Amino acid sequence: MGRLLRILLHSSGFFTFAVLQLLCLYLIVHHNDTQRKIWAETKFVYGSYFTKQVSDRLAFLDVARENEILRRENAALLSRIPGSGYNTSVDTSTVVDSLMQQRFTYLASRVVSKSPYGPYNTLVIDRGSNLGVERGQGVVADGGLLGIVSEVTPRHARVISLLHLDTRVSAGLDNNAFGTLRWDGHDPRRVTLTDMPDYVPVAPNDTIFTTGYSNVYPTGLPIGIVESSEPMPGTGSQHLTVVLLNDPLLAATGYVVRDLFKEELERLNQVK
Amino acid sequence: MNTSALVNSSLRFVLLLLVQVFIFNQVAWGWGQGDLLFVFVYPLFVAMLPLRLPRPAVILLGFLLGLSVDFFSETIGLHAGALTLTAYLRPFILRLIQPRDGYNIKANPSIYDMGGGWMFRYLALLLLAHLVMFFLLQTFSIYFLSDIVLKTVFSLPASLVVTFAIVLIFNPKA
């Protein structure tokens, strides 16, 4: 403070001059017509330029608000592109046949969301309870299995992928020997068929089908091809390594399988 | 500031104000669209203030005299602004034309103390600063640079002759 005071005292001449000169300029501009006009013109010419420069320099201060506005605008625009629409047309394949009563119907759906790849893969499809999708229904895709519906909202459903450590699918060979299909969480192209009796002859390249015993998938849908078999000592069963026919990670569409007899079959299972 | 200097300065303030306003403000000469030649004598007041007077006092007195001239000339701020700058520049001009052995502690800026040649250069520099600033404020734009230069070229010799004549005639000691 003392230092500042000394500076002020030392250059008191300059400060007196500056103050009085500014006062003079003020008086000139406010009491002389010619100078006032020139001042107004100068201010008009350079003021806008100066203001623009300043606002350019300080534009970043406003960037948060600008960002918010742009994000809102982006959202409004994105909602208008075709991909953001919810497809309300229903593609259900139903065959009317007098000999065969329809048991399974297939509802076409698009995959709209996938979890990042990990041991617990899930995905979301754009069909929900409005179109009869229910918890426990299977989803097939690309000539193979995709997963099982776990959560349902009116317009969407969450599907537990086949590549999920908790997924269990009943599967077997065409000689009616069956086991449980599960994924070990390592290779997204291979799954393991467990609990297959070890006396059943299995050869590589045998095809694995769904059994339909769990009322999730129809009977006889191909799942994959046996790569190798490994007997489990002491358990009486063997593990089959199965190469999947499709790649569930790459699926973009899927068909929700609806079992029309499901309620009836569930009534049977309620009886102990 | 001793008594004689105080009295002399006060007298100069009033007299130079009256002379400038009632005589030399009527003198304006030029051709074409505007006047080019003006005679300013009142900077003499600032020039002849004692050398030991503090700078803020010099500047303030210059401002007051300029404002007084402005009141009679209906150009509020013009003369005041020019004379304020002149008063501010006075120490720099004094240093510029400093004699080899510096200023005597009792010296006054007068022919009596400093000699005619020094006084002439001193007044010339002061008037130059004053005139340039005055015409700059009058036109109020660098755009009229040729105008400023022309007016200064015409007004400087005239003002210098008149002020130096005044100094020679009265030859004040303080």
TrEMBL record, chain A:
GO terms for biological process: regulation of cell shape. This is Cell shape-determining protein MreC. InterPro entries: Cell/Rod_1, Cell/Rod_MreC_2, MreC, MreC_beta-barrel_core. It comes from Neolewinella xylanilytica. Belongs to the MreC family. GO terms for cellular component: plasma membrane. Keywords: Cell shape, Membrane, Transmembrane, Transmembrane helix. Gene3D superfamilies: Rod shape-determining protein MreC, domain 1, Rod shape-determining protein MreC, domain 2.
Automatic annotation (TrEMBL), chain B:
The chain crosses the membrane at residues 6-24, 36-53, 59-89, 122-146, 152-170. It comes from the Bacteria. Keywords: Membrane, Transmembrane, Transmembrane helix. The keyword Transmembrane helix applies. This is Rod shape-determining protein MreD.
